[in-house]
Write a structure and sequence with these properties.
2 domains, single chain, elongated, 17 helices, alpha+beta, about 10% strand, five-stranded antiparallel beta sheet
């Protein structure tokens, strides 16, 4: 069925009015004119407009130059008792205005505005951004696995001696603004090189994109990044120490594994945790670390891209409205958004705090649980699902506790 197109023309003249005569003038007009059908009982209604432009903003620049002729394409809604939605093409020559419009449904309008219908260039940009982030994870994973191929015994000895301080070192490492830290931490935990408490400390302290967002802020609240970092580092270390204290069994498994690593020579040098004896130095120090790092890269890329598509489809405006809808539930909402393994979630939570749309407690909760792709990496294997769910449960509860602590403090 063809969509009906409405065309009309009107002459428009605008005059400045002193504020003190507006009300009597409107009252005088009301005796001779009918109210706009879209208006409420008070005679007012809300107008929402989205103007479309090119990449160089030529439309708005031309409009600001006040030419004799100009044209605009826009999406407009008139609220009130009878809301109506249009996509219209507006031309103006001198004081004459020509409009060509189609009426769209409320659902079509909301899908366009809030879900931000994905274009192929959006998907392409997402794929490229995800590739860049995953490439950094690849470099970091390869560097660590390459070093482990040479010094696993010495590193195992160091970790064994300093094991009791693992959560502190983990939280300090997690504070580095690079989500690859959490992936590498999860990988080392899977190989039983880190205790459970150390991994949780890394996850809780993970900062990802929050630091550059705060330091690049012009709102005057950039300094709040320092108490935020202190809370995440100290909170991560404290929770990590408690987890290791009450989880002695897992701690002993790590200790036994590190002792085995320290005592072995060629039989357990491979980064993937399998025997590579007799395969030669190229396989030992290059091929195996590279293959293992590429597996991490592929997993990280696929997961990040899929969740990026979800964010594109839902729309950041919808997520922002969800986060700021209730003050006392905001830490819970922030945790739900923070669990999305994508840097967009940490950027969004940071931006909403800087715009004063969510409280500090929600910021802490959302960023504490947001550990990049590390938590997802734990679930790539099926043999330790129970342990992975336990770690995620501790992470979520800890993030909520920190968030609601500061909600209570701010009251």
């Amino acid at each position: 069925m063809a969509i009906p197109i409405v065309n009309f023309c009107r002459t428009e003249n605008k005059y400045p009015f002193p504020l003190d005569i507006v009300e009597p003038f409107v009252a005088a007009l009301a005796e001779h004119l009918d109210a706009d059908p879209y208006a409420t009982n008070q005679g007012h209604y809300q107008v929402n407009t989205i103007y479309f432009d090119d990449a160089d903003n030529n439309v708005v620049h031309r409009s600001l130059s006040h030419p004799l002729y100009k044209e605009k394409l826009r999406l407009r809604s008139y609220g009130g008792a009878l809301p109506v939605y249009f996509i219209e093409f507006k031309n103006k020559y001198a004081s004459d205005i020509f409009k060509r419009r189609i009426i769209v449904s409320e659902q079509e309008y909301e899908n366009f505005v809030f879900r931000q219908i994905m274009a192929w260039n959006d998907v392409g940009e997402l794929a490229l951004d995800t590739l860049k982030d995953s490439a950094l994870i690849l470099l970091m994973a390869f560097a660590i696995n390459f070093l482990l191929s040479f010094f696993e015994g010495k590193i195992a000895s160091l970790l064994e001696k300093k094991k009791r301080y693992g959560p502190l070192f983990g939280s300090l490492a997690g504070a580095i603004p690079q989500c690859g830290i959490s992936v590498v931490g999860a990988d080392l935990y899977e190989k039983e090189h880190l205790t459970r408490g150390t991994l949780i400390a890394i996850f809780l302290a993970c900062s990802d994109e929050a630091l550059p967002i705060f330091f690049g802020s012009f709102t005057g609240a950039w300094y709040m990044v320092f108490p935020l970092l202190a809370i995440k580092i100290l909170g991560g270390a404290l929770v990590g120490f408690l987890v290791d204290f009450f989880g002695r069994k897992k701690d002993e498994e790590v200790k036994e594994h590190l002792e085995e690593c320290h005592g072995e020579s060629a039989a357990h040098i491979g980064c993937c945790g399998h025997e590579i004896e007799g395969e030669g130095p190229w396989h030992e120090h290059l091929i195996h670390p590279l293959v293992h790092s590429l597996k991490i890269f592929a997993y990280a890329y696929v997961v990040a891209f899929v969740f990026g598509l979800v964010i594109l489809w839902v729309g950041q405006n919808q997520i922002a409205a969800f986060l700021s809808s209730n003050y006392y539930l905001s830490p819970l909402y922030a945790v739900l958004i923070g669990l999305i393994p994508n840097c967009a979630s940490s950027v969004l939570i940071s931006d909403l705090y800087l715009q004063k749309l969510i409280p500090f407690g929600a910021l802490v909760a959302g960023l504490a649980v947001n550990a990049g792709l590390g938590p997802i990496y734990l679930f790539k294997g099926k043999k330790n699902l129970k342990d992975s769910f336990l770690i995620m449960g501790i992470l979520i509860v800890s993030a909520l506790a920190l968030g609601y602590l500061f909600i209570w403090v701010q009251q």
